Amino acid sequence: MFTEAIEDILRDHATAAAVRAIEGGASPAPLWAALADAGFLELMAPESAGGAALPLHAIGPVFTLFGSHALPLPAAQSIAARALLAPTGKAAPAGMITLAGQCLRGADGTIAAPLLPFGAIADWVLANVEGGMLLLDASQASRQPSGVHGSLAATLVWTARDLPGPVGDHGERVRDCSAAIHAAAIAGAMGRVFDMTLQYCNDRSQFGKSIGKFQAVQHQLSVMAQHVAAAGIAAELAFAGDGPLPARMPVAIAKARTSMAVPLVAATAHALHGAIGVTEEYDLQRYTRRLHEWRMTDGSEAYWNRLAGQALLAQPQATITDFVRETLAA
């Protein structure tokens, strides 16, 4: 029900033209208001706080939907921030909230959030700082854009005098939520990239027939489809638990698998599209740019594979199948 209602809003407001405009510096306020005024920011908040208390398995498709529309707003992060703040008793502030899964503390007491997703436009940052959870005012930070075309990521730095006290001691949950969100976003964007590539191969003709009829192209599409399907299943695992927030090991598996698929899926899509895929007017690059950015956000597959591998090696008697089954059950 929520997914269909949100998709209607995105179809009307998160058009390709609107996304490009926001990437180019236009105000995100109209698109943000369309989501916020409909009450969708409270989907994960508990009922005691006026939220819908949506279970994880129901919120996962919403976050995937955001990825499939290349939503240029921290909507998923703002939804998760309300669930993260609920146990602390701290009310979520108005405006766009993004998540900083890992911040760096300088010798002079400054706090830096490197290449923060939506750091260029966010009003607030819910940050993991050495295991503590801080709610930081983005307007008090210096912002350094990533320099990547169309990216809304930026590095934010706060001086020591601008830092509030922690609002909670579960900062690591911020990173888990952020990684789960990006796993879902990758899965959604990959699905859109595959659909675009398949359609192009069916429409593009060469030597009197569509290039999708050639066996070499079909092989590439088949491999691409396998990775897209695996990424989608992995993203679902991150939101398969009964708790109010994603758990660490399912998130590790999801983020590792979705990130691992990015280079192959993006490269295959561009190879089959040819030169048109990188043009500003064509939508493919809007998604593949994000896929590469989201792959690295919160740690690439190398980081999350290491966490999952260490957990597996800590149970030497368990098979991989048992490990995955028990991890998901836990």
Notes on the structure:
By secondary structure, the protein is α+β, with helices and mostly antiparallel strands. The chain folds into two domains: 2-169, no CATH class; 172-329, Butyryl-CoA Dehydrogenase, subunit A, domain 3, CATH 1.20.140. Helices cover 52% and strands 11% of the residues. The chain has helices spanning 2-13, 16-23, 29-36, 56-68, 75-85, 171-203, 215-238, 248-273, 284-296, 301-313, 320-329, and strands spanning 97-100, 104-105, 111-116, 124-129, 132-137, 142-145, 154-158, 205-206, 209-210. The strands form three sheets. Strands 2-3-7-6 form a four-stranded antiparallel beta sheet, with no helix packed on it. Helix 6 (171-203) runs antiparallel to helix 9 (284-296), helix 7 (215-238) packs antiparallel against helix 8 (248-273) and helix 8 runs antiparallel to helix 9 (284-296). The radius of gyration is 20 Å and the shape is globular.
